[in-house]
Amino acid sequence: MLHQRAATADPVGGDPLDAYRPGMSLFASKRGVVRTEGAIATVDRLERVGRVLGEIRKEGGGTPLAIGAIPFDDRAPAHIVVPEDVHWSPPLTGTGEADRARRPLPGPWTVRPSPEPAGHIAGVERALKLMADSAPDARLRKVVLARSLRLTGPGPVDVARLLGNLARRDPAGFTFALPLPSGTGRTLIGASPELLVAKSGSAVAANPLAGSAPRSADPTKDQQRAVALLASAKDRYEHAVVAEAVAEGLRPFCRTLDVPARPGLAKTATMWHLSTRITGELRDHTTPSARLALALHPTPAVCGTPTRDAQAAIRAIEPFDRGFYTGAVGYTDARGDGEWVVTIRCADVTGDTLDLFAGGGIVTGSDPDAELAETSAKLRTLLFALGIDQRL
Predict the structure, then answer these.
(1) Which of 315, 379, 375 is nearest to 117 (CA)?
(2) pTM for the complete prediction?
(3) In this structure, is residue 96 part of a structural domain?
(4) Measured distance CA(159)–CA(105) in Å, rounded
(5) In the annotation, is 142 catalytic?
(6) Number of domains in the chain
(7) Which is the catalytic residue, given 59, 97, 194, 199?
């Protein structure tokens, strides 16, 4: 008999980050922090989660929860776990002053890029040519290209310390750590700024991000970069492609849908992003968050458009398998309520090695050198958390 123990609340005033241990799952958002242990069931396809949770609910009562991740490639297996124990805590709080809170991980680190910087520039040029050469009636409008850094340290990576560094720098974001399939010793860890979809009862929300600029430590320059991003025709076009796709993906499920006419700004410790907060009311409150997530994934923010053509371009150009990077990570309960975020600003950790990823959207007018610089800026989220201050 499958039975998930009733969820418990962590002690008031306790820090869930202190309670985290490698092998646990943790997902933090403005709704709160869920931390789980053990596994009574695993599911390799997100669309099967609702049936499994329904069976467990019938057998044990209560409202069981599942947590996990889906990969970028929908042909690859997901890793969703129904845990034995679930612990809830209030949302993380903090100042975001990372220098004061950061506990650097010991080095030195060896770095192996994939591709080399020149290779990424060449890939961007290749994507631009594909867009220019595509047929007008089925035009490739956007391709998201990523690069990866493999970092190897002097000993096993302290995942708990890395998680704490990520969470305390951006406490209002989405921070996560999830063990990947049993026996691999892998952990997916990150701090994503992008909500794919959240559902609570009949309320649904999504927050696509596209169009980015690096932050500056100088307040005046930082504000100038934000203003320039809002005014950038190239970035506004890139963002509109994503926001339109997310709205169209949600519209069939919604009675009402509010899509702002113009994007706003969202910021993390390292980046400015163009942001559109989309909200709506579902036609059927029983529509599960997992179904909504699958209807949206992959968005043009991490893939491109049209989706299948962009995926083909990514497979032809990128020299590595993305795995769970640019997939989705989150949780759902038996009512279908849950949160799913886009798996960016993340690393795949195994032993003494981390694979870091960062990408950018390529549209007509993109500058290859600027695209390389954007990936370097995005990599700073994980590099800073490790204690590496230089750009790579």
Answers:
(1) 375
(2) 0.94
(3) no
(4) 10
(5) yes
(6) 1
(7) 194
